[in-house]
Amino acid sequence: MTGLRTALHDWHLAHKARMVPFGGWDMPVQYTGVVDEHLAVRTGAGLFDIGHMARLSLGGADVLAFVERVFTNSVAGMKLDQVRYGLLCNEDGGILDDVLLYRWPYGYSMVVNASNRGKILAHFAKMARGFAVDISDETERTAMLAVQGPHAVALTKGLFDFDADELNYYHARPTLYCRNAAVVSRTGYTGEDGLEIIVPNELAIALAEELVGRGAIPCGLGARDTLRLEAAMPLYGHELNETIDPLSAGLGWAVKLDKGDFLGRDALVTAKANPKLTRIGLALDGKRAAREGCPILHGDTVVGTVTSGSYAPHVQQSIAMGYAPRDLAAGGTTLTVDIRGTHTPAVVVPLPFYSRLKPGAV
User: Fold this and answer.
1) Taking the mean position of all CA atoms in its chain, how far away is CA 29?
2) pLDDT digit string, tens, across residues 213-222
3) Computed over its alpha carbons, how large is the radius of gyration of the chain?
4) Closest CA to 347 of 335, 339, 359
């Protein structure tokens, strides 16, 4: 492999992880197996290396105006230490990336998808013309780990200079780990409660060992994908891309058309007035997985395409997300998915397939 390596690369190898290229990085896809790791997160706590995610710092006199210009969600009302999900769009309303924005005393930081790091840095450099804004890429200077699951927060007790259970959902806090500056946020990408933790590279292995010693199970990208699918969280390059707008993707709640002008706003106003395709959830007969690209049919007519699919370990159901016309998106609508030549019955179901607040959602 020739990709970038996170600070935990050697640790993964020592723990017998199977490594794969992902977003320009060498990353663990699994340790003991996707199903075991998936269920460990749903029932206990799982540990993920998310050091491949890009971490950008944004400051300067015009930073608020700049972020409002490129971010679809509202920014001005964010409180210190608050985290907010939103989209970065192009002029046509297509999604360049979905990101997390953090509010700090000095300005903002942003977590960007690994595969989009170069694209977003170039986009920001172009958009920053005329703004007094400083953009710094901190990705390779730090490590980022996620501990996720119903026991995740509790097992960090005593690790930091505050009790993470005091942290509200989608809030973050500067802290100390081993007397070094760190950041802890109550965020994640699994549908479970948990934390995402940024530490200096040299402390990544110590933190991973400590979390595993307290009961967290090492997990790879395979389980991360099936977990986010059960929770109906969109993945860039699958549910999201530059031809899809946030409203079609079911992310209208993260688009504030009334906040003032931002890049892509005019196109999104038009899209809202003329809705076409929408993201749907499907429960399929049997255990065969519908993979990305499988056609979705209504009768004999192809009406959409699967963007993600898997047999989901926790809900024990073959599930998929995809796009279809809005008039076929109502729950209970019967459709068919062509899985490599086999037409498999499917029914539209509400998203998410799984919610920790509503167990057994499918």
Assistant:
1) 16
2) 999 999 999 9
3) 20
4) 335
